Amino acid sequence: MTTEPHNKKIVVIGAGWAGLGATYHLAKQGYDVTLLEAGAYPGGLVAGWKTPGGRSVEAGIHGFWYPYKNIFSLINELEINPFTNWTRSSQYSPAGLEVESPIFQKQPLLPTPLGTFIYTQFKRLPLIDRLSALPLLYTLIDFDNSDSAWRRYDKVTARELFKQFGVSARLYKDSFEPMLLVGLFAPGEQCSAAAALGMLYYFILAHQPNFDVVWCRGTVGEKIFRPWVEQIEKIGGKVLTNRRVSDLIVDNKNRATGVVCGEEIFDADAVIFAVGISGMQKILSGSPTLQKRQEFRNLNNLSAVDVLATRLWFDRKIDIPLPSNACFGFDNTTGWTFFDLNAIHDEYRDEPGTVIEADFYHANQFLPLSNEEIVPIVQQYLASCVPGFREAKVIDSSVIRLSKAVTHFFPGSYQYMLPAKTSFANVFMSGDWIVSRHGSWSQEKAYVTGLEAANLVIEQFKLGSKAEILPIEPDEPHIQLAKTFNQWTRDLAKSLLPNFWLP
């Protein structure tokens, strides 16, 4: 395959992890790539910007977890150094500190999931409740991220699954529900069991260090996306902002030949969509071409979750034990996190006061409130966790409302999600909600699916070299053995009871 420049025009829609990943690799392979972003900044939901007063803000804080091999490889290739060291984290409820997590890779390595179970420091949750999770381990063996596994578990709620397998009410309330609220952004009764199992396994249970995390030392937009876009433009890619796609032009051979943005038309030999669910639904609503295809019309059945991102500047230094913290029990259906930006962001290390980012997920009830109503609520919640916030004064604040911002993996949603290939011969999909067998989640999944879409373009035109996609770390031998045995018994049962076995 050649990597020489050629005249194949690729249009990528959406400048988040997926879109930038696809654009960067295709530009390196000599394609004429144009990346269209509806917003004013590349980066999608993780783009940062400045307030009128010159302070940095962004649409929530995003962690970079130990198994993000492909993103870490990209960072090395770009020769940038945007991350903190590995950090410890904690969980709070209105009663106070509930859990502290160590840096798991620094602990003696134990067979999964023993390390996670033993080294996580629960302050209040009794051992008997933690032991009630043992039967649930079967589902983590049974769920292998295959299409059949997704279809088996997707129509069951996470809450129903945990109850069926004997998880105690307290363990669910104090441990699993908080994980769902900040990992899948919704309460357990609104989350797909398949998505819950995939998320929990990838981030926490597959390998002992998987829960370890680093943070960007500033906004992701400034520290990562800006140098990345500069590199894309340096090698010939075009990144255009404020371009809202409204339709595709398709010929009689079932191929997209152009992308419509208002009065502009961008010629295309192939198109990659790299937008979130809400963005895709907006494009669909104005696109007669996409509306003719059932696979795209079905996207209207998908949904997303509201997010509230707040940043508060306090008038004094406040002693915050750990830089990253998850919180639960303050609202029945809302999870939230808060971060000590003095410890994480370079910009605030010498700040005379304290700077906090507090992000709320499934925040429907907060979005109608005014900023003046929201800020005192956030301070009150912070004071329940760290008493030093009680007497501090807020001297500046930023409140960002993100309606339908993050993917909602609700029960039954899998059947409506699209694979990378569409019914158009040269239109491909990417993003964290696209069906992928890679096994990753969140930002890593978005980036990986961008590379997968780029590889489909290369496969179609036989021009350039495919991106190397690093697989997730293989299961440990005892887990592999358990999964093999489980699949054997499942196949045997199907052969003996073909009329009774559910898919």
Automatic annotation (TrEMBL):
InterPro entries, sorted: Amino_oxidase, FAD/NAD-bd_sf, Zeta_carotene_desat/Oxidored
Coiled coil region boundaries: none
Recorded superkingdom: Bacteria
Domain Amine oxidase: 18-458
Full protein name: FAD-dependent oxidoreductase
Organism: Floridaenema fluviatile BLCC-F154
Lineage, highest ranks first: Bacteria, Bacillati, Cyanobacteriota, Cyanophyceae, Oscillatoriophycideae
